[in-house]
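Figure 6 in text form: structure in, sequence out.
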């Protein structure tokens, strides 16, 4: 095959292809086919000077990509997953296969990068993983993810001595709300309660929907968390939650909270049973 034929074949290929070359300032593109220009939407790819790889790659992926390129061709046809950042700030995830530049090489050290867009596949995989571990109504972690994080929290507690705090929360009168106004109103109440509990918790805490009208808050670093203050903060957050009904009116719901310090010697079910008892004590106190 003549060089011109090879160039035309690669130029017209639907597979985004880049040539990159090492320079004193780092790796830089020397050529890009039309598919690459369209995929990455960077005008510099069409310029003779090319674009610095550091201006194309996501900062978190740059060091790994440079390490791969610096090793050069090893005969291993591994595809690498890198994220490129377009000039408008959007990110495209690609799988990259590195190979020889062939007749298009600009000089020694030039490498060819064949890139195919896997953004949709990655997004769908992440979405499926999220759905598998989160409640579809509230978006909160489900019971399985709560248990996994609880195991990890206990593992950290063995190293740090910081025992988690566990709060068991139950929506008051959800059955009556469902019976009187329908399950859409009940679902709305659950979503609002989830938002309130999340807002009253720290980023490092886990707020999970345990099932039905029950939620669990797992707060790590007990020395930094005063249990009664946490319980009061959660109670205040869910004491008077407005829920819009289908007829446009508003109903206010509340949530009872029972809180205990975790006991690593007991099973999570036993700890939750203790928190559940405290929750019912809280429910009885507020009814009396």
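Output sequence:
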């Amino acid at each position: 095959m003549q060089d011109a034929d090879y160039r035309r074949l690669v130029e017209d290929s639907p597979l985004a292809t880049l040539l990159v070359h090492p320079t004193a300032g780092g790796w830089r593109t020397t050529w890009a086919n039309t598919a690459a220009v369209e995929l990455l939407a960077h005008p510099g790819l069409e310029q003779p000077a090319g674009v610095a790889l550091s201006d194309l790659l996501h900062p978190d992926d740059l060091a790994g990509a440079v390490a791969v390129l610096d090793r050069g061709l090893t005969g291993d046809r591994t595809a690498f997953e890198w994220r490129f950042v377009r000039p408008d700030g959007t990110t495209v995830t690609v799988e990259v296969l590195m190979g020889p530049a062939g007749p298009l090489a600009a000089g020694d050290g030039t490498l060819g990068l064949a890139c195919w867009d896997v953004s949709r596949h990655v997004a769908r995989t992440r979405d499926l993983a999220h759905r598998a571990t989160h409640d579809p109504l509230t978006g909160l972690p489900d019971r399985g993810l709560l248990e996994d994080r609880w195991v990890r929290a206990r593992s950290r507690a063995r190293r740090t001595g910081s025992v988690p705090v566990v709060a068991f929360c139950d929506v008051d009168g959800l059955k009556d709300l469902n019976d009187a106004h329908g399950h859409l109103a009940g679902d709305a109440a659950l979503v609002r309660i989830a938002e309130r509990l999340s807002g009253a918790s720290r980023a490092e805490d886990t707020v999970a929907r345990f099932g039905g009208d029950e939620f669990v808050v797992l707060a790590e670093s007990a020395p930094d968390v005063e249990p009664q203050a946490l319980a009061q903060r959660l109670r205040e957050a869910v004491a008077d939650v407005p829920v819009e009904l289908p007829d446009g009116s508003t109903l206010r719901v509340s949530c009872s909270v029972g809180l205990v310090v975790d006991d690593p010697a007991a099973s999570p079910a036993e700890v939750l049973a203790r928190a559940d008892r405290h929750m019912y004590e809280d429910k009885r106190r507020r009814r009396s």
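Caption detail: The chain has two domains: 3-124, 134-287.
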